[in-house]
Amino acid sequence: QVQLVESGGGLVQPGGSLRLSCVVSGFAFSSYPMYWYRQPPGKEREWVAVISSGGSATNYADSVKGRFAISRDNAKRTVYLQMNSLKPEDTAVYYCYASQYWGQGTQVTVSS
Fold it and tell me: Do 110 and 86 meet the contact criterion of CB atoms below 8 Å apart?
């Protein structure tokens, strides 16, 4: 059974930081690139970041470049999203994705 379980969301003030985690089970984690997406309230889901299977290559949406960092630990079957300098427009449900599978999402709210 494939499972992607996100955690680490919450309420944070503008300028603050959060670190999201996504623990994966049920498929060959280390063989697949991993993605983070987000869905702001009332908007379409959008791609945020991707990391290659080995972790050596990453890419980011322009809206988060320089503020967010994606990483992975293949031994722990976990992908992370470090989010710094958060803005109200980063408010969204954040999802991890790989190989046609989605997690359930974790809510991030940036507000004073």
Answer: yes
Q: Where are the beta strands (DSSP E) in 8-91?
A: 10-12, 18-25, 34-39, 46-51, 58-60, 68-73, 78-83
User: What separation in angstroms does the CA of 97 have from each of 3, 29, 33, 51?
Assistant: 10, 11, 9, 11
Please state, in angstroms and rounded to a whole number, the distance separating the CA atoms of residues 9 and 11. Answer: 7
Average pLDDT score over residue span 3-22: 97
- Collapsing DSSP to helix, strand or coil, 89 comes out as helix
Burial of 51 (0-12, 13-18, 19+ CB in 10 A): buried
- Exposed (0-12), middle (13-18) or buried (19+): which is 16, by Cβ within 10 Å? middle
Token pair recorded at residue 38: 């987000």
Read off the pLDDT of residues 71-112 as tens digits, 9 standing for 90 and up: 999 999 999 999 999 999 999 999 999 989 999 999 999 999
N-term to C-term CA, the chain: 40
